[in-house]
Amino acid sequence: MARLKIRNFGTALSFNGTSARVAIPSSASFQSTTAATFIVWAKWNSLAANAGLMAIDSLSTGLYLALRSTGVKFEVPGTDPQIPISKLKKGQHFCIVGVFNDGGLNKIYLDGTLIDSQTSTGTATTSGIPAYVGSYNNAADFHNGIISEALCYKDTALSAAQVSDYYYNGTVPTAGLAFYYKFDEGAGTSATDSSGNGNTGTITAATYTADVPMKPRKLVNDNLVRNGSFEFAPPFVAAQTATSWIDGSATGSGTNNLFRWSVGAVPANGSVCFDPTNSNSGSYSIKLDKTAGGASSINILNALSTNLASASIYEQTTNMIPVYPNVSYTLTFYYKQTNKAGGTVQVCRDEFTGASTTRISFTSMYSDSSTSDLGWTKITQTFTTSPTTNYLALEFQWANATTGTVWCDDITLKPTYALEVR
């Protein structure tokens, strides 16, 4: 029996059922006539009479993968193959593959298994018609749920073996691939086409989410800091000047925590951003910049609360780092500074129980007030959590910043000694 290979889906798009969609301008690269294949990873929150998962259709003569109260139907020339709703549980991610005209048959697969096969007749009319993910068109049949991936093949009917290989192993056939959306940008209104055909989609009203079919598990003794390398970066990197989650915009977000870091304090003439031009390793670091004088602090942290002395229990259990009480941990990070005229670079930790909003302790683990230009420097600190600590937040601070630039990269937190899990 085939075993499902664990894949990293990154992020997905959440659709609101009323207006959310991804629109792809009409292109000859996906206008099929004699055969086609649609692939969608999706989850439903609520059902309607009709909800579009993917469509290249006009007046019901094209190709339309629809989720209905009765199940999923692939509307194509000939008889439409269907999956009954009894096989599609609410809140569960599933992989739907619709195939038009595979040797004279229209087929639909669920999680790699053929569910229905019907007679195919005629040709599809898709010329000059845009494609949509999450709806039928601009104004109708909106999906209420999540879509993690969407692929379309032009004039190509994937075989049963190819469908199985895609589902179980994540193998994406390249022949005939017209567009391929992974929805792993994490922010913005553009969906990148990974097929190479340049069919960039425009996202309307849909929001990014970490609710995906699967992700690789982290090892017990692996790095506990999510996105500590800053390599999962927004598709744009504007200098953020507001205290909120960093999402690549100037104002940040109060809800989009997919990039895992927030600005806890930022003064006038100060900003924070993911920096693609200067890193210790990989492609990105985090940059704290101050262009004018006046002593005031800039900091980033892996939580949203600007008053960590009384962070909510939700904030602790959702965004902070889960740790064991009375256990030794080792923190490693790299930082760099240029033209720094004043202030002190500090790395601090806040410890919480996860059962009370009162912070257990606040500790500065490292401090450097030098103003000399400094290349990437590795710092390692070891500490032991308190007997009641279950969660902690890390803060990288430039306290009393005046002018200059400070970068941070490659933050790791691991148990000092390997933990045994029973």
Please outline what is shown here.
The protein is mostly beta strands.
Write the layout of secondary structure elements.
Blueprint: E1 12-16, E2 21-24, E3 36-44, E4 51-56, E5 63-68, E6 71-75, E7 82-84, E8 94-100, E9 105-110, E10 113-119, E11 131-133, E12 144-154, H1 160-169, E13 177-181, E14 190-191, E15 201-204, E16 207-209, E17 262-265, E18 270-275, E19 285-290, E20 296-301, H2 313-319, E21 321-322, E22 328-338, E23 344-352, E24 361-368, E25 374-384, E26 391-401, E27 404-415
Antiparallel strand pairs: 1-12, 1-16, 2-11, 2-15, 3-8, 3-12, 4-5, 4-11, 5-6, 6-7, 8-9, 9-10, 12-13, 14-15, 17-20, 18-19, 19-27, 20-26, 21-26, 22-25, 22-27, 23-24, 23-26
Question: What portion of residues belong to β-strands?
Answer: 35-45%
Give the termini distance in whole angstroms: 29 Å
Q: What is the share of helical residues?
A: under 10%
The topology string of helices and strands comes to EEEEEEEEEEEEHEEEEEEEEHEEEEEEE
Average pLDDT figure: 92
Q: Structural class of the secondary structure composition?
A: mainly beta
Give the overall shape: elongated
Strand element count: 27
Which stretches are low in confidence, meaning pLDDT under 50 for 5 or more residues running? none
- Please give the largest β-sheet: 8 strands, antiparallel
How many H/I helices? Answer: 2
The radius of gyration is 25 Å
